[in-house]
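re: ur question from earlier - yeah i can do the single chain one, its not a big deal. heres the input i used so u can compare w yours
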Amino acid sequence: MEIKLNDITFVIPTAKEEVRTLASIPQECKVIVRDDYTQGKARNEGVYQSKTEWIAFADDDIKFNKVFLDFVLQLADKKSVVGLQGYAPSPWLISRFMFFHRSVFETIGPLKEVRHGEETEWLIRAQKAGYKLKGLPRDSVYHYPHDKASNKNEFKNLVWLIWLYPDLITRAIKIVINKMLKSSDDNEYKHQ
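and the output i got, formated as tokens:
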């Protein structure tokens, strides 16, 4: 299956004036930049506004090249979500970059319009509906340095996910603790 660039919409949630990601997106692709109260709402509205078969969620502060995008397009199919791997031992992807067919969104529904964790919850629903998550290394795209989320936000995210999916309590605790430990040493959060 060949995916044409003009059948892809990049949805970028941001409140920033400078959207660094735009420089990486091929001109043939459509782009929707949304400034909504939450990233979940911005992504949902972007999908509703789009007309293409394929959707890419991208943060506003990443850089990727054509080789990366070509590889994503080769991996993509209508029964999967391709994206960047989360923090081990997480089986879920992070929303810094995710790519999927519109039918995934139509089948499992929109993202929750909450402050944090909406992508993880959406991916849990995708997995439960039978979609495969195809993860690429996080460093496949460059992520411009910024301040990291606080441990307080990570804890709120954990509590919310456990409340929604009690069967995930052990895995969720391991994931968040591991992420907090690793992110303090992670170069992507250090200003240079």
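The longest helix spans residues 169-183. not sure if urs matches, ping me
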